Amino acid sequence: MTSSTELYVNLQKIYLAKAEADFLVLQQRVKSILKRIGRDPDSISKAMIKSFCKNARKLKVCRYRLIEDEFSNPAVSELQKYLSDEEYSVAMGFYILLRAVDRFAANYNSFPGQFEGELDEDISRLKTAAVGLLNDLGCNGSTVTEDLINEMCRFGASELHAVAAFIGGIASQEVIKLITKQFVPMVGTFIFNGIDQKSQLLTLPAFHRIRWGSR
């Protein structure tokens, strides 16, 4: 494919004309909205609108829910779906157990499996906490496998250096996304299964909207 300077310049003018036309349409729309909500129609500058037009293709709408909502208003249908889905059941099981461990620690001032000689008792206690949590979440009749409960107690709240570094790296990456408002943050609860070397996101319904720039 070849092109002359004249054709290239003409093509460039076509793109510039289209960009200017889009800017004018959006500018009128912005002024109309500002006027309707009682703000100065010129409070958003031309430079800002042009920048928005230029980068619109890089914007993504991300919807999230507060952690408080996740605890106080659980999405029962989503929880049940993940628990019954073979692909996500293990990740969902760990999610339930991590929350059950919080209850365990609050009740017994220790983590399951933390002290030698109490493993069998801790397994029973953690199972009870997990069943109680599932019932509170509205997932009556759902269970977490014995293997996952035993594994959660077996590792006794230990923190392997490699796993801690991996999780820390992911957390810091997400913080940078939030601070800079660049790239797309994760939407959902991230679960890393170090046994199977598998990462999964559990996405529950969202109620809050934030706009982020992505590259």
From TrEMBL:
Keyword field contains Translocase: no
Gene Ontology molecular function terms on file: ubiquitin-like modifier activating enzyme activity
Similarity remark: Belongs to the ubiquitin-activating E1 family. ULA1 subfamily.
Pathway assigned in UniProt: Protein modification; protein neddylation
Organism for this UniProt entry: Salix viminalis (Common osier)
This protein's UniProt keywords: Ubl conjugation pathway
Protein name: NEDD8-activating enzyme E1 regulatory subunit
Taxonomic superkingdom: Eukaryota
Signal peptide: none
